[in-house]
Structure formats: structure tokens, C-alpha cells
């Protein structure tokens, strides 16, 4: 039997959960999303490409400040949900495009801003995705990247990757700040600001949003219960499995 590719797997995982991500309070709010909107309001780009839009929350926040927002995603079903929500919000300047981050179907310099939020850790290749983001962004264009960030501690990093993969088999990697910094520099972006954050994940909502099978949710709880003190403390693991992760927002400019 032919196994599905990573992109096929991600499409299947997220396409079936599109409505949950559009309505997700975790994704619909946050200081990082507010800051992205502020940065776009200051620049007023003619065109923004939102890479891996998911539930579309960057696109919705960006639309009032951009001439056009192109929301891209692997999943046609996710984009259909974004189109419906954009119409409900009367955001006529939001358009969609089915595409992986690594193969954006746009000309060089097609946009004067690019953004991505909580998507990079699903990309098959962060390096190729960022190279594509740089290619489609005009020189001196604004770039905004927000994501879960791996702890510097290898012990905590391993725990995070393990529970992420158990929850969602399409997970690739939560990258560290050092990894993001190197990858952005190699892709041709100059970092101008970094905003760290912490985000509490309600365990029941976190697993339900992805439709995590009960046996895998139980496996996550077992990992949490057996985790050493350093891991328990870093992630502030609670009695019901809820925990807190590190996030970052990187503001950069295309060199």
C-alpha cells in the first residue's frame, strides 16, 4: 500500500478540522497577532502573502491594512473555510491559493509583505519555505513569522516534540530561536525585532481541536506524568494535562 506523503497527511489532518481552527480562541487572539496587525498598519503593504494560513486569523487581522491578502495553505478544505469566514466578515480583499510553503506559485517579488503564524512547524522544510517566502517578497519588504518555539534545553525540547507528534502525526518540528535566526539569515531576511511569549494550552481543547485519538491523548498524559521536574516546571504542567509553551514573533525585512 502506498503511504501518503507528508503534505497529503497534513491536508487530511487539518482539512477535516478546518472549522475548529477558524473558531479556535487560541489562534484568533494573542499579543503576537495584535503586534502583526500593528506592524502591517504601519507599513500598509499593497499585497501580503499569508503562508500556511490555517484558520485564516493572520489574513483577517491583516485585511484592513493591506491592499490584498493572499492566504495560502495545503488544504483546500481549510481555504474553503477561510473564504467563508472572510465573506462573513466582509473582507473582500482576502483571496486564497492552494500551495505548500515550499512551492509558492508566485513570481519573484510578487508581494511587499509576507507572514506566517503557527505554520512553520508543519512545513516539510523550514529552509525551503523561508527561501520561497524571500523569493516572493520584494527587497525591503516586511516579513512576520510567529510560531511555537522549542526550549534551549534539550530535555525540554525532546518532551515538546514528543507530545506534539503524539497529538498530530503531521508535526515536523518546533524550532528554537537559534534555529529560526540561522534559517532566516540564510534565506535572506534581516531580523529587526523578536517578541517572545508564553501560551497556555488547555489539554482537552488542544487534543479535541486536532481530533487526537484517545489512546494517543493517554500516551501524552503518561509522558507528562513521568516527566522530570525540569520539564514539569518549564511547561507548567497542570493536573489535567494543560501546559504552557514558549512562542515567538520575529519581525524581519527582506534583504
Topology:
Blueprint: H1 6-15, H2 18-22, H3 25-28, H4 31-43, E1 47-50, H5 57-62, E2 68-73, H6 76-88, E3 94-98, E4 111-117, H7 126-136, E5 137-148, H8 154-167, H9 177-187, E6 189-201, H10 203-210, H11 214-226, H12 229-234, E7 243-254
Parallel strand pairs: 1-2, 1-4, 2-3, 4-5
Antiparallel strand pairs: 5-7, 6-7
Helix pairs in contact: 7-9, 8-11
Helical fraction: 40-55%
CATH class: Alpha Beta
Whole-number average pLDDT?
94
Work out the radius of gyration.
18 Å
Name the overall outline: globular
Report the CATH superfamily.
Answer: Vaccinia Virus protein VP39
**Into how many domains do the coordinates divide?**
1
Side by side, the strands of the main sheet go: 3-2-1-4-5-7-6
Q: What is the number of beta strands?
A: 7
Distance from N terminus to C terminus (CA atoms, Å) equals 45 Å
Description of the molecule:
With 255 residues, the protein is α/β, with parallel strands linked by helices. The protein has a single domain, classed as Rossmann fold (3-Layer(aba) Sandwich). It has helices at 6-15, 18-22, 25-28, 31-43, 57-62, 76-88, 126-136, 154-167, 177-187, 203-210, 214-226, 229-234; strands at residues 47-50, 68-73, 94-98, 111-117, 137-148, 189-201, 243-254. A 7-stranded mixed β-sheet has the order 3-2-1-4-5-7-6, with helices on both faces. Helix 7 crosses helix 9 (177-187) and helix 8 runs antiparallel to helix 11. The longest helix has 14 residues, at 154-167. The protein is globular.
Amino acid at each position: 500500500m502506498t503511504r501518503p506523503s507528508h503534505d497529503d497527511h497534513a491536508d487530511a489532518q487539518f482539512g477535516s478540522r478546518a472549522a475548529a481552527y477558524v473558531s479556535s480562541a487560541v489562534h484568533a487572539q494573542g499579543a503576537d497577532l495584535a503586534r502583526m496587525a500593528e506592524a502591517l498598519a504601519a507599513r500598509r503593504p499593497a499585497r501580503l502573502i499569508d503562508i500556511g494560513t490555517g484558520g485564516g486569523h493572520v489574513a483577517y487581522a491583516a485585511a484592513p491594512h493591506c491592499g490584498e491578502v493572499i492566504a495560502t495553505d495545503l488544504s483546500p478544505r481549510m481555504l474553503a473555510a477561510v473564504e467563508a469566514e472572510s465573506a462573513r466578515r466582509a473582507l473582500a480583499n482576502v483571496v486564497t491559493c492552494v500551495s505548500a510553503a515550499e512551492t509558492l506559485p508566485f513570481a519573484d517579488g510578487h508581494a511587499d509583505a509576507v507572514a506566517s503564524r503557527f505554520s512553520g512547524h508543519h512545513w516539510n522544510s523550514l529552509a525551503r519555505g523561508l527561501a520561497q517566502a524571500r523569493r516572493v517578497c520584494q527587497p525591503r519588504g516586511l516579513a512576520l513569522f510567529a510560531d511555537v518555539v522549542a526550549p534551549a534545553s534539550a530535555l525540554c525540547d525532546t518532551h515538546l516534540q514528543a507530545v506534539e507528534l503524539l497529538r498530530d502525526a503531521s508535526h515536523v518540528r518546533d524550532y528554537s530561536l537559534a534555529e529560526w535566526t540561522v534559517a532566516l539569515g540564510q534565506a535572506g531576511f534581516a531580523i529587526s525585532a523578536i517578541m517572545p511569549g508564553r501560551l497556555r494550552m488547555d489539554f482537552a481543547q488542544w487534543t479535541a481541536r486536532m481530533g487526537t485519538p484517545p489512546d494517543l491523548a493517554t500516551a501524552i498524559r503518561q509522558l507528562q506524568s513521568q516527566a522530570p521536574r525540569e520539564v514539569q516546571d518549564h511547561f507548567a504542567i497542570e493536573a489535567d494535562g494543560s501546559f504552557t509553551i514558549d512562542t515567538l514573533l520575529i519581525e524581519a525585512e527582506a534583504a
